[in-house]
Amino acid sequence: MAETPSFHPLPGRASRVFSLPNILTYGRILAVPALVVLYYYVGGPAGRWLSLLVFIGASATDFLDGYLARVWQQQSAIGRMLDPIADKLLVAASLMLLVADNTIGGWSLLAAIVILMREISVSGLREFLAELRVSVPVTRLAKWKTTMQMVAIGFLLAGPAGDRIFPYTTYIGLLLLWISALVTLYTGYDYFRAGIRHLLKEDE
Q: In Å, how far are 30, 35, 170, 174 from 165, measured between CA atoms?
């Protein structure tokens, strides 16, 4: 049976701020401008493949930071705050790049708008509920929603460059984008239903 890896944290407050899980989260945030530069300014097939590599690496940290924080018992307030922000920055920046170069166009714009509107709305709801000291836990479906969004964006970042290798790359990305948008709507409804229930209790 494999032993749980040990980790010796830094002393004091620095151990929470600069723990490895938090460093991975910081890295995911810093990956956003790198993604923009590679995709928009390098451009072409090379820019797409390089930005895809950055996106995959950043997406992997979304799993690793939470896993390591739990295994090493290094959960922190700053980590809980920045983790969803990092996810939303990565998804929002990627969607805007894909809309800007028309990889996402036509009716598929609606799917991208639904995703962005849900993320902004739920963030606002969470902030408001936090003032009431109410915590709305992340559901398993919401975690799958994030995974589907990232897989869809990965296919779309490859886009036409990926189509040269596998002709249906962009099509699969758009299909997954619509599926993730529908799941996004459902999970958003779940959050707002829970939020309204707490608001009604607050007004009683």
A: 30, 22, 11, 17
103 φ/ψ angles, rounded to the nearest 5 degrees = -65, -40
What CA dihedral angle connects 148, 149, 150 and 151, to 10 degrees?
Answer: 50
At residue 56 the predicted structure's pLDDT band, cuts being 50, 70 and 90, is: very high
Domain boundaries, the chain: 14-203
Alpha helices in the chain (DSSP H): 14-17, 20-36, 44-71, 77-100, 108-131, 140-163, 169-203
**Rounded Cα–Cα distance for residues 52 and 54 (Å):** 5
- Reduce the secondary structure of 37-48 to three states and give it as a string: HHHHHHCHHHHH
Please report, for residues 24, 32, 66, the alpha-carbon distance to residue 17 in angstroms, rounded to integers and kept in the order given. 11, 20, 15
- Percent of the chain past pLDDT 70, that is, above it, reads 84
Q: Are the CB atoms for 31 and 150 separated by under 8 Å?
A: no
* Burial category of 79 from C-beta neighbours within 10 Å (exposed 0-12, middle 13-18, buried 19 and up): buried
Q: What is the pLDDT of residues 116-172, one digit of tens each?
A: 998 888 877 777 776 767 666 667 787 788 889 999 999 999 999 999 999 999 999
Write the CATH number of the domain with boundaries 14-203: 1.20.120.1760
